[in-house]
User: Which sequence fits this backbone?
């Protein structure tokens, strides 16, 4: 029976740590990337036929799909003048042998909350424009995220997929007549998405900072955080997703590295959404009229 001191990693992981750190000292990683280089990324739109909007993002060998559905509902009591946003995430067992079947575990809940914060705290989705009858009837946006293949860092592609799905979504348009909400037949409109949130996973091993760790690298890291940005200069969310301490001396560097990475990811996303999204402040999914 092996005995470890509290806080120590298993011996095989310690051996991997030493090997990875030797490579990092040479400015490279086990898959040939540089320390601050993310894996190739691709974005595919409209992959789920029955969703109002959907996207699949592939980051290296990690693949995540997100779908958007839209419906009417009642507002939350504390936000009668805003629509509702609900984000759910699942780590499908087929994606990795480390993912277990059953209801969402703490890792899936952590993922859904991080995606939610990136969208909500950046105010990327104008929930105030999803109100039909204040205090009574609002639009409800459901975002479902599924990790299909896992090879490290599902946070960044999950935020990217959710953002792409929201940006490309076309939802039912409604109108209000004398306080009654009715569908406008045959009319579908974009959601009021005014920003494109993106995120980056940043890991540290001793004094080295790396971007977008793989499944092999993740357990060997001393610690990692995921950082979401609403725009190139607007921080939206920070989540520490692993045990371990983060030296204060490295935190500023990690935040700046994440900003640079998310700027590149946002450029990739903007290029993919060129024909389907514009950051218009006046987009509305409903109209008011008096009969």
Assistant:
């Amino acid at each position: 029976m092996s005995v470890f001191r509290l806080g120590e990693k298993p011996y095989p992981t310690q051996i991997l740590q030493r090997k990875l750190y030797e490579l990092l000292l040479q400015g490279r990683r086990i898959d040939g990337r540089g320390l601050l280089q993310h894996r190739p990324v691709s974005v595919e739109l409209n992959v789920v036929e029955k969703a109002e909007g959907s996207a699949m993002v592939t980051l290296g060998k990690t693949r995540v799909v997100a779908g958007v559905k839209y419906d009417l509902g009642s507002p939350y009591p504390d936000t009668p003048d805003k629509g509702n946003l609900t984000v759910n995430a699942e780590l499908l067992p087929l994606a990795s042998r480390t993912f277990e079947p059953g209801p969402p575990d703490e890792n899936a809940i952590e993922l859904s909350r991080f995606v939610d914060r990136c969208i909500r705290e950046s105010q990327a989705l104008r929930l105030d424009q999803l109100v039909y009858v204040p205090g009574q009837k609002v639009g409800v946006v459901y975002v479902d995220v599924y990790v299909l293949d896992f090879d490290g860092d599902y946070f960044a592609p999950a935020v990217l997929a959710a953002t792409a799905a929201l940006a490309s979504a076309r939802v039912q348009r409604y109108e209000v007549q004398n306080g009654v909400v009715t569908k406008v037949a045959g009319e579908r409109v974009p959601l009021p998405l005014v920003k494109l949130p993106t995120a980056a996973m940043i890991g540290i091993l001793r004094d080295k900072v790396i971007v977008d760790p793989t499944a092999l690298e993740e357990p060997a890291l001393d610690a990692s955080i995921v950082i979401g940005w609403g725009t190139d200069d607007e921080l939206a969310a920070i989540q520490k997703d692993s045990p371990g301490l983060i030296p204060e001396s490295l935190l500023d560097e990690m935040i700046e590295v994440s900003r640079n990475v998310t700027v590149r990811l946002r450029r990739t996303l903007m290029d993919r959404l060129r024909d389907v999204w514009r950051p218009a402040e006046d987009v509305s999914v409903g109209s008011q009229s008096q009969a």
Summary: Residues 248-272 form the longest helix (25 residues). The chain has one domain: 31-276. Residues 31-276 form a domain with the Ribosomal Protein S5; domain 2 fold (CATH 3.30.230.70). Residues 1-6 have pLDDT under 50 and may be disordered.
